[in-house]
Amino acid sequence: MLRVLQRGDRHDPKDLTVGLRFEGAPEAMVPGEAIKNLVHRVVREQEHAAAAIEALALAICAQAIERHPAIGLARVDVAEQPWSRLDVGGKAQGQAFTPSSGERRIASVASNGTRVSVTAGLDNLVLLRTSGFVPTIRGKASEEPHTDGLQRLFIATLAARWSYTTGEIAFAPTRAGVRQAIVESFAWHKGPAIRATLEAVAEVVLASYHEISQVTLTLEERPYRPVDLLELSVHSDTLFVAHDEPVGTVEITVERA
Q1: What is the model's pTM?
Q2: How far apart are CA 113 and CA 215, in angstroms?
Q3: What contacts 39, CB < 8 A, 6 or more positions away?
Q4: Distances (CA, A) of 140 to 47, 49, 158, 164, 195
Q5: If DSSP codes are grouped into helix, strand and coil, which group holds residue 89?
Q6: pLDDT in tens, 145-198
């Protein structure tokens, strides 16, 4: 669904995909139309319309359990597609937009009416480094030191999930801070392999945000390889091309002690 928040001449689009799953006895089954109406009602409420998607998921989950007490466990998943304002003549337009990227914000809330768990994250964050990583060879990191001077191109798509210890925090600034920690750690950390960088990212997030109990990072490498290594001068710009080969995936989960 797409909600447009209007503040005079300034509009803010809220592009959401909402999924719900319920567990319970057969009589707890809720008609799909009732679920859609419930979600639309919550999203249209002004207090929730501009809220962070974590807060929105909490509100939907709470109302689902309140209105349908036969539900034993409810889970609400919300994904948000960000939009960026078009820049025309050096000025950001108030009512014209373009998708900011393929990156999406993710939130998931589960509740049985007594206990609540909140997980946030992001999908499809594309990252590029032109040096500082050891390329993988047949699924393993090469242990050979690289002295040929060639750039080591690394392009990957990152997904991140982190779990909160409470549902009463400032979700929007925490999300922005976690994303910044991920980007900065990826940019500056140099390790023997990408796994070391992912571990460093998770450690920075846990050290910076004590409300987060666990971080899971999943990275899929896009295979770009140098063209004709023997013909390239190590002192010139290096040309890379995409290869149709299996994508390497690294996933780590780090929990707070």
Answers
A1: 0.80
A2: 25
A3: 1, 18, 20, 60
A4: 50, 46, 19, 33, 11
A5: coil
A6: 444 443 467 788 999 999 999 888 999 999 999 999 999 998 888 766 788 889
Per the CB < 8 A criterion, the answer to whether 63 and 76 are in contact is no
Nearest in space to 254 (alpha carbons), one of 192, 220, 212, 221: 212
- Contact at 8 Å (CB) between 104 and 124? yes
CB-CB contact of 176 with 156 (8 Å): no
Distance (Å, whole) CA 97 – CA 81: 12
Q: Which residues make Cβ contacts (< 8 Å) with residue 64, sequence separation at least 6?
A: 20, 22, 30, 35, 38, 71, 74, 76
**Range list of H helices, 68-110:** none
38 Cβ contact list (under 8 Å, min separation 6):
60, 63, 64, 67
pLDDT in tens, 59-105: 999 999 999 888 889 999 999 998 888 888 878 788 888 887 789 99
Reduced 3-state DSSP string for 223-244: CEEECCHHHCCCCCCCCEEECC
- Read off the DSSP letter of residue 246: P
- CA dist., res. 57 & res. 80, Å (int): 12
Query: What letter would DSSP give residue 27?
Result: G
Burial of 52 by CB count in 10 Å (0-12 exposed, 13-18 middle, 19+ buried)?
A: buried
Sheet with 2-7, edge to edge strand ranges? 2-7, 10-24, 71-81, 104-111, 116-129, 154-164, 212-222, 249-255
Closest by Cα among 98, 227, 116, 205 to 158: 205
- Amino acid 219 reads L
Structure token digits, residue 194:
């990408």
Residue at 134: amino acid letter: V
